[in-house]
Amino acid sequence: MSSYINKICLPTAKQLFSGQVLVSGFTVKSINDSRQNVTLLRSTRINLYDSTDCKSFYQSGFKITMVCAGYASGFEFDGCRPGFAGGPLEQSINGRSYLVGIITFGDLCGLKYNPIVAAKNRA
């Protein structure tokens, strides 16, 4: 294990989450406007929305097997970027990290009330 790699718990079917979650994934950045690129691991904390809000954002595209998260203020780095799909949505509770979901998609990245969507994970 390291500061970048650690174990994570799968939540039970009845476990509920609220508040902030950590998202992480890889982005590509150019170095000094050259043709060289570097891959960076990025992470940020975003807010979970309740399922009613998620349904209003995505309507029929949102299922009970999904969870969504983002910023109410918008214009923030929110994990809705290439390289984040398939990445974790995690939350620490009492010193244990739980895999809340796996990032699947997001529309209009970084804008107000346009959260990312993740498939819920359950044990």
Protein architecture, described:
The protein is mostly beta strands. It has one domain (20-120): Beta Barrel (Thrombin, subunit H), CATH 2.40.10.10. Helix content is 7%, strand content 41%. The chain is built from one helix and six strands, in the order E-E-H-E-E-E-E. It has one helix spanning 51-58; strands spanning 20-30, 37-48, 66-70, 88-93, 96-106, 116-120. The chain has a six-stranded antiparallel barrel. A hairpin with a 2-residue loop joins strand 4 (88-93) and strand 5. The chain starts with 19 loop residues before the first strand and ends with a strand. The model has no long low-confidence stretch (mean pLDDT 82).
Layout of strands and helices, then pairs:
Blueprint: E1 20-30, E2 37-48, H1 51-58, E3 66-70, E4 88-93, E5 96-106, E6 116-120
Antiparallel strand pairs: 1-2, 1-4, 2-3, 3-6, 4-5, 5-6
Core attributes:
1 helix; 7% helix; six-stranded antiparallel β-barrel; mainly beta; Thrombin, subunit H; globular; 123 residues
Instruction: Give the C-alpha Rg.
Output: 15 Å
Return residue spans where pLDDT drops below 50 for at least 5 consecutive residues. Answer: none
| Total discrete domains | 1
Helix content: under 10%
Question: Strand sequence of the main sheet, in spatial order?
Answer: 1-2-3-6-5-4
Return the structural class: mainly beta
- End-to-end separation: 22 Å
Largest sheet: 6 strands, antiparallel, barrel
Series of H and E elements: EEHEEEE
Percent of residues in β-strands: 35-45%
The count of DSSP E runs of length 2 or more, i.e. the number of strands, is 6
Mean of residue pLDDT values: 82
Number of helices: 1
**Shape summary:** globular
Q: So what's the CATH class? A: Mainly Beta
- Give the CATH H-level superfamily: Trypsin-like serine proteases
The CATH topology label is Thrombin, subunit H
Q: At CATH's second level, what is the architecture?
A: Beta Barrel
